[in-house]
From TrEMBL:
Residues 87-148 form the Transposase (putative) gypsy type domain. PANTHER family: MYOSIN HEAVY CHAIN-LIKE PROTEIN, OS06G0165300 PROTEIN. InterPro entries: Transposase_28 (IPR007321). This is Transposase (putative) gypsy type domain-containing protein. It holds the Pfam family Transposase_28. It comes from Stylosanthes scabra.
């Protein structure tokens, strides 16, 4: 994969990426992570703070290189990208729950394709179902929420079905998250915790 760092007539970087990322459009192609050095990554804190209680999953946060973009994929699945607000503010923990994986699979999305407000709906639904003493089911979730314009290479949002609003938006204006992405990598001796035994 090769990144071109030329600029347009206004001095704004033109980023072209050779690879199979032609479906990615808009500003996502241009935005460099704010986490490009070890010091910025350390400010997030100990990765063990973001693990489900009782889980033996171990991972690490890694800085992004300036040429990397949130939609890249590690060649050997050695890492994936996450917007930090998803675990810092919304409370998503690793490994993803079966329900969270189900939503990702249903929408055919990577974690960074899901808008933070949508992550808040997912987490809120899980908490509500836990309070009610029942298992969160995809069928029930998607009877209250519908995906809006699922397009390859774009951020996916879900909205409440008309007349069935369970929750309000986590944030009305969610503008500053797109450069707040980080690499999440497994420790070398552990099979990637985000893949099952079939590599899915």
């Amino acid at each position: 994969m090769v990144v071109n760092r030329e600029t347009d007539e206004n001095g704004k970087p033109l980023v072209t990426v050779d690879g199979n990322y032609s479906s990615v459009k808009g500003e996502v192609r241009d935005l460099v992570s704010l986490f490009i050095d070890v010091e910025s990554v350390e400010e997030i804190g100990d990765p063990s703070l973001y693990v489900h209680e009782g889980s033996d999953v171990r991972f690490r946060f890694l800085p992004c290189e300036e040429k990397e973009r949130v939609y890249f994929r590690g060649l050997g699945w050695e890492h994936f990208y996450m917007y930090t607000t998803v675990f810092l503010d919304i409370g998503i923990r690793f490994p993803f729950t079966e329900f969270e994986c189900g939503v990702l699979n249903q929408l055919k999305c990577a974690p960074t394709q899901i808008h933070p407000n949508t992550w808040a709906f997912i987490r809120g639904f899980e908490i509500l179902m836990e309070y009610l003493g029942t298992t969160p089911l995809l069928e029930v979730f998607f009877s209250f929420f519908q995906a809006k314009e699922v397009r390859k290479g774009e951020v996916v949002t879900v909205n409440s079905m008309q007349g069935k609003a369970l929750f309000g938006l986590y944030r009305q204006s969610y503008k500053d998250f797109k450069q707040m992405y980080i690499k999440v990598g497994c420790v070398e001796e552990q099979f990637p915790f985000y893949l099952d035994e079939f590599g899915l």
